[in-house]
Amino acid sequence: WELRGELPAEHPFRGNEGALRRFLIARKLNVAKARQMLDTHVAWREENLPVKLTPEIRAELRKGKFYLLPGAKDVNGHPVVVVRSGLFDPKERDLETCIKAFLYLLETSLEDLGESGKFSIMYDREGFSVSKNFDFDLLKAWAGIASDNYPERLASVALYPSGAVLAGLWKLVSVFFDVRTRSKIKMVQNQEELAALIPKEALPPRYGGARPHE
């Protein structure tokens, strides 16, 4: 691999073919740009990971705003992270704590997947209000972190339930996501369409599924 040959022997990702492949794809196989992205990512990891599970982060995770569906997989076998947008309130959250809590969840979700593994997100809009729950700063921060540090990790995002309001919001925030990520966003209008992406046996009853517990 040309990218691997560009890295010094002590580079933490030199022998990680899965990671090298992901960063190359993210930079359209441009070795120089992939190397720059990878080096920036290494510096970011040293500064931000691992996330220490502080009382503040535990409290944020207990709010149930985002969580991993235990043992559940989408139709392509990817683990599913649920994001309940109706529980967000930018006036009552600490941005840094919320970012770190999601990073903790994300890193935990990826532990058993290997460097080529991917995850899916179900973005639940039930109970969502633009005036109360729309957290522009948090979405912008998450988008930047995902694009810069987790390339080719996202399998798909199901936006449920979709409609005219969501289409308008997506147009506003989509500019913060790279082109490949935008192509993975799916507007899901009803439970039948949702079940085509995530089997009913993996979904709790609130989404028309048969899973007894979330």
From TrEMBL:
Start and end residues of each CRAL-TRIO domain: 54-214
Q: Per its UniProt entry, which superkingdom is the organism in?
A: Eukaryota
Which Pfam families does the record match to this protein? CRAL_TRIO
Protein's recorded name:
CRAL-TRIO domain-containing protein
Record the organism: Pyrodinium bahamense
Specify the taxonomic lineage: Eukaryota, Sar, Alveolata, Dinophyceae, Gonyaulacales
